[in-house]
Automatic annotation (TrEMBL):
The lineage of its organism: Eukaryota, Fungi, Dikarya, Ascomycota, Pezizomycotina. It comes from the Eukaryota. This is Beta-xylosidase C-terminal Concanavalin A-like domain-containing protein. It holds the Pfam family Glyco_hydro_43. Belongs to the glycosyl hydrolase 43 family. The record marks 152 as: Important for catalytic activity, responsible for pKa modulation of the active site Glu and correct orientation of both the proton donor and substrate. Transmembrane segments: none annotated. The keyword Cell division does not apply. InterPro entries: ConA-like_dom_sf (IPR013320), GH43_C2 (IPR041542), Glyco_hydro_43 (IPR006710), Glyco_hydro_beta-prop_sf (IPR023296), Glycosyl_Hydrlase_43 (IPR051795). It comes from Penicillium olsonii. GO terms for biological process: carbohydrate metabolic process. PANTHER family: BETA-XYLOSIDASE, BETA-XYLOSIDASE C-TERMINAL CONCANAVALIN A-LIKE DOMAIN-CONTAINING PROTEIN-RELATED.
């Protein structure tokens, strides 16, 4: 959405401020793999709230979301949108690499996103991106690369304007801090702040000053059901920090709540001085077995009386009694982070910013509205398939484009017309968590009894990323003769929170015949992709790499005959 609309909403919200009442709202506010949130409120930006979340290995990276009512959110930019900003992004290859646990802050008219990049060789680089306008993606330029103080960097300004970097020192598992020059990236002498309460695996330190105290909050206990948030405070920035006697201040551990693994807290105020918190959580229940959307961002009101410790409610899907800004969003459904996709790839347009690649893509493999095929997306097959080379530490480029799974129940479908020339060619849809954890339904080929290559449906469950689990054989079904010259509709839907239903049927006739397959959401939960969440869409691969194999995706109307093309696709709930 253009920034001007946020200005219009700001006027409307100002007129309606007196109407603010307690109300019900729903979590997560940023659904679908949006972990480790950091949020701010900026009055100078038309009373807009901004959030960022971890992106790890995907590209584009470091999303910025905006809202004026804390309930309807839009992705307005990706901080890392050009590989020239940070060329090392090309090396990221596995789920645990890439950009981790960022902090978003605003100071004297400038936005700062402080993050860390975890490289395949184990090197951790601290980066600070700056912008005067987060709505303008190109305004986020090359980052300031800093000598690394530690993991999960947090930026804080004291009352005298001095800036400080707070981070986690590994393997000491302690919180440290140092003054930093934001022009050069150099930091001064480091000093110890706190080592937590003994919960282990410290994460995401943040400093907040209130009522003469410096409050230090950290996550402890790892990212699973023992995740918790603890706090300490001091009358001096450099300590000593005294822990809250009733820690943890926020957690779902040892509970029967559906929202689990709650932690990685950030705190901010609204225009009226009301305090709110955000944290990540999984929609899993205490069993923690099926949560394909991974860690998502939830919102909750905070009671923080003067001179006291903040008080937090349990984090749930339905939150009551919070005094939110009035719901007055003018966002179209397709602009919302949890909305329906309506994309026609019109001439002159780009791939929408919410669609993702796993790792840095080969940009020449994606063409919007190519010549003679207006309103379509052409994909050129990659040599690497979705799984890639098992055990490889080298980044591999896959021709695949994804969107995050944002709903527990949904349906996603597309029509595909594809005649493979050899057995190595495939095109279809996938539920993808990591190279060794995905569920695929594709059109490929097999050889018949005469040795001829014929089109076939392929259903694959790749589950090597979870130790001790079965890896079922891939299923092949030759396409019926009547299906081979017509578009085939591929669909995946969530029949419940634990099961995906895949299907294929001929769309040019009544559904007299349908192939149906089922896959477990547990395949795309945790394991190799424990930091991530499920991604959807289509892939186009040709491991043998002989000649050129392309496919076209187009909405609304069928294309002329092509090696492989999509007629239309839809995501809805």
């Amino acid at each position: 959405m253009r920034q001007g609309l946020y200005g219009f909403l700001s006027c409307a919200l100002g007129l309606a401020a007196s109407l603010r009442t307690d109300q019900t709202f729903y979590n997560p506010i940023l659904p679908g793999w949006n972990p480790d949130p950091s949020c701010i409120f900026v009055p100078e930006a038309n009373n807009t709230f901004f959030c960022t979340t971890s992106s790890l290995v995907v590209f584009p990276a470091l999303p910025i979301y905006a809202s004026q009512d804390l309930q309807s959110w839009e992705l307005i930019s990706n901080v890392l949108h050009d590989p020239d900003q940070f060329p090392d992004i090309a090396s990221a290859s596995i789920p645990n690499e890439g950009f981790l646990e960022s902090t978003l802050r605003y100071h004297h008219g400038k936005y700062y996103l402080t993050t860390g990049y975890y490289a395949p060789d184990g090197k951790f680089t601290t980066l600070i991106f700056k912008s005067h306008n987060p709505f303008n993606e190109s305004g986020w330029g090359k980052p300031l690369e800093c000598p690394t103080l530690g993991y999960d960097p947090d930026l804080f300004w004291d009352d005298d304007g001095s800036s400080y970097l707070t981070a986690l020192k590994v393997p000491d598992n302690t919180v440290i801090q140092a003054p930093i020059d934001l022009d050069t990236g150099r930091w001064g002498s480091e000093y110890y702040l706190w080592n937590g309460t003994g919960g282990g695996t410290l994460e995401g330190p943040h400093i907040i000053k209130k009522d003469g105290f410096y409050y230090l909050t950290i996550a402890e206990g790892g990212i699973s059901v023992d995740h918790m948030q603890t706090m300490a405070r001091s009358e001096r920035l450099n300590g000593p920090y005294i822990p809250f006697e009733k820690n943890p201040v926020l957690s779902s551990r040892n509970s029967s709540e559906y929202f689990q693994a709650v932690g990685h807290l950030d705190l901010f105020q609204d225009a009226k001085g009301e305090w709110f918190g955000v944290a990540c959580a999984t929609r899993s229940g205490p069993e923690w077995k099926n949560f394909p959307m991974g860690r998502e961002t939830s919102l909750f009101p905070v009671t923080w009386n003067q001179g006291q410790w903040p008080e937090f409610p349990p984090v749930r899907g339905v939150m009551n009694g919070s005094s939110l800004p009035p719901r007055m969003s003018l966002l179209k459904d397709e602009d919302k982070v949890d909305g329906t996709d309506m994309i026609d790839f019109s001439p002159g347009s780009s791939i929408p910013k919410h669609l993702l690649h796993y790792g840095l893509p080969n940009f020449s493999s994606y063409t919007v509205s190519p010549k003679n095929y207006s309103h379509s997306l052409r994909l050129r097959a990659s040599k690497t398939n979705l799984t890639g080379t098992i055990g490889s530490k080298t980044a591999e480029q896959r021709t695949a484009i994804f969107r995050k799974q944002a709903h527990s129940l949904f349906s996603f479908e597309l029509d595909i017309l594809f005649t493979p020339a050899m057995t190595s060619e495939e095109a279809g849809i996938t539920v993808f968590l990591a190279p060794q954890q995905h569920l695929d339904l594709a059109i490929g080929s097999v050889k018949n009894e005469k040795g001829s290559v014929i089109p076939a449906l392929i259903f694959r469950v790749m589950n090597l990323g979870k130790n001790g689990t079965n890896h079922p054989p891939t299923e092949f079904y030759p396409l019926p003769e009547a299906w081979r010259q017509s578009p085939v509709r591929l669909q995946v839907s969530a029949t419940n929170v634990t099961t995906y239903r895949f299907s294929a049927n001929l769309i040019s006739a009544e559904r007299k015949m349908e192939y149906v397959f089922y896959g477990s959401a547990g395949v795309v939960t945790a394991g190799e992709g424990k930091f991530d969440g499920a991604l959807f869409w289509h892939a186009c691969t040709k491991p043998s790499w002989r000649g050129r194999f392309e496919m076209l995706m187009k909405s609304n109307r069928i294309l002329a005959w092509s090696v492989c093309h999509y007629r239309w696709w839809k995501w809805y709930t």
